[in-house]
Amino acid sequence: MTKLSLCMIVKDEELSLPKCLESVRDVVDEMIVMDTGSTDKTREIATQFGAKVPSFQWNGNFSDARNASLESVSYTHLTL
User: Fold this and answer.
1) Is-contact 52 34, C-beta < 8 A?
2) Are strands 30-35 and 5-10 parallel, antiparallel or unpaired?
């Protein structure tokens, strides 16, 4: 069976995050919310929705943050 993981890169998204996660939580098998240094309640909100919330020290490179988030995915990847 195919599994679907949501990977997001976020910082200080407490206002937008609840609606976003609510809209996908019944569709995805897991949620990864890669936090890049939030100072608001982003991490707590993501955790309340059952997301894994690893941290990434922002270095100005979205590729590095994306790759770090993919390392947190529980399911094996299939590349076509």
Assistant:
1) no
2) parallel
The sign one gets for the Cα dihedral 38, 43, 14, 76 is positive
Determine the pLDDT at residue 76: 62
**DSSP letters spanning 33-64:** EEESS--SSHHHHHHHTT-B--B----S-HHH
Cβ atoms within 10 Å, residue 21: 21
The 10s digit of each residue's pLDDT in 10-66 is 999 999 999 999 999 999 999 999 999 999 999 999 999 999 999 999 999 999 999
